[in-house]
Amino acid sequence: MKISIIIPVYNGESYIVRCLTSLLNQSYTNWEAICINDGSMDRTDEHLKHYSESDNRIKCFSQENQGVVKARELGVRNSSGDYLMFLDVDDTLTFNALTLLINKIMSVSFPDIIVFGFNIICKERNVKKKRPDFSSIDKISYLKSVLTGKNGWELCGKLYKKSLFNFSLQLPEKIRIGEDAAIFIQLICRSKTIVACKNKIYNYIQHSSSVSHTKSIELAEETIQAACFIENYLKNTSYYSLLADEISSMFLLFYSNSTRKTFLNKENNLIKYIREKHFKFSAFCTIPLRKAVYVFLHYYIGNIVYEFLLKIRH
What CA–CA distances, in Å, run from 153 to 70, 167, 223, 262, 263? Predict the structure, then answer.
């Protein structure tokens, strides 16, 4: 049973050694690393060449800078494993990660998706531990839990059966925030069995310089556009009618994330759409209380401040 680990790399010379070392230290050895150099301008290519020459399980491909979605797509096409996972270049796996996943595969008869626990490591060395809150779950329940933020929508932190990628995915264009969720929702819809490995085996390293921490109106709008992409995709599935409140919850969560990029005033067309269709009590009730309070206060207090500033300006 081979596991393919797909690693997009852009200017990753500071992280690639630590990342690949965590793979070389794995107790399970039947794996391959598919490293995609996404137009790096540092010494990434030099590091990748060194590792690929010293271990034939590490395979390297290059492309002009096209972003993480295209890099992962290239990695999937060139993978040969029975299962695959995505690993960011600045993250690592615990030494027994693949062994635990293989044991889970064998114990539950080859599931389509395995969700596993992870550690969030901040710059200050604070560690937050997260793990799935289920052992096995049906597709609709899992979709609801992901759309409402109870389970994560990141592509990393999961193991996927390769056959889920046998059909082309709809890829959001020119979206840098929320593309993980847009792809992950499609994979859930294609799956039949979803199980959890509650061991914390993925180390997610947070950086203040990452795109998710960058502030701009463009990124704020892209966040909400990702939610629109997901809504449109689900409209063409048989699950849409079962997920009305949860889709609205997703919009509230994406709105919450967008406000961390910048403030979008109520005249913005995306904000108008959320306000008119998705600001409803039933949606607020399905997301975590802290998020619900944040969205409510930010929207109403934020717009009071916006109106006040307009009056001062005029």
Answer: 19, 20, 13, 22, 24
Per-residue pLDDT, 275: 79
Q: What is the pLDDT of residues 108-131, one digit of tens each?
A: 989 999 999 988 887 655 677 777
* The length of the chain, given as a count of residues: 314
> What is the H or E stretch that residue 292 is in?
helix 289-313
Lowest mean per-residue pLDDT among 3-7, 59-63, 131-135, 195-199: 131-135
In angstroms, the CA 34 to CA 87 distance is 10
Which has the minimum average pLDDT: 9-23, 92-106, 294-308? 294-308
pLDDT, tens only, 174-187: 777 788 999 999 99
CA angle 192, 232, 83 (to 5 degrees): 30
Give the 3-state secondary structure of residue 296. Answer: helix
By CB neighbour count within 10 A (0-12 exposed, 13-18 middle, 19+ buried), where does 37 fall?
buried
Q: For residues 269 and 112, give the distance between their C-alpha atoms in angstroms, rounded to a whole number.
A: 38
Cβ-contact 274, 231 below 8 angstroms: no
Homologous superfamily in CATH for domain 3-211? Spore Coat Polysaccharide Biosynthesis Protein SpsA; Chain A (3.90.550.10)
Let me know: does 151 contact 145? Beta carbons within 8 Å. Answer: yes
d(CA 247, CA 240): 9
The number of angstroms, rounded, from the C-alpha of 57 to the middle of its chain's C-alpha atoms is: 25
What is the rounded distance in angstroms from the CA atom of residue 83 to the CA atom of residue 162? 5
Name the residue ranges covered by the structural domains of the chain.
3-211, 214-313
User: What's the half-sphere exposure (Cβ side, CA atoms, 13 Å) at 84?
Assistant: 24
CA 186 to centroid of chain Cα atoms: 12
Contact 261, 310 (CB under 8 A): no
Tell me the H-state helices in 200-287. 217-235, 244-258, 269-277, 281-284
Cα angle 282, 288, 292 (rounded to 5 degrees) comes to 60
